[in-house]
Design brief:
The protein is an all-beta fold and 118 residues long. The protein has no helices and eleven strands.
Length: 118
């Protein structure tokens, strides 16, 4: 089992920035990649970004490319999501997730709320 705990959410004005953190514990050696997702009220959960622990390569959703940056600290088993140039449409609960090699996301955090006002 892998436990994930997110932090860093909050309320900001449009154009502002936030940094989300996701600390992993437990069988972290089994994690192959980690990702961030978000879900706004009344909408389906959507992919935001992911990072592969092996080489640090990253993938982003088109909607956040150039504004959000995913990074990680292997020593601390923590992944970050830097959110810049925030827009009201970025308002959502943001979730961290982890996936073992060859499998889809199996572990999820409890979520952290990001609210962007215009």
């Amino acid at each position: 089992q892998v436990q994930l705990i997110e932090s860093g959410g909050g309320a900001v004005q449009a154009g502002g920035s936030l940094r989300l953190s996701c600390a992993a514990s437990g069988r972290t050696f089994s994690v192959y990649y980690m990702g961030w997702f978000r879900q706004a009220p009344g909408k389906e959960r959507e992919f935001v970004a992911r990072m592969y622990w092996s080489d640090g390569s990253t993938v982003y959703a088109d909607s956040v490319k150039g504004r959000f940056t995913i990074s990680g600290d292997n020593a601390k088993n923590t992944v970050f999501l830097q959110l810049n140039s925030l827009k009201p449409e970025d308002t959502a609960a943001y979730y961290c997730a982890a996936a073992p090699a060859g499998r889809s996301y199996e572990y999820w955090g409890q979520g952290t709320q990001v609210t962007v006002s215009s």
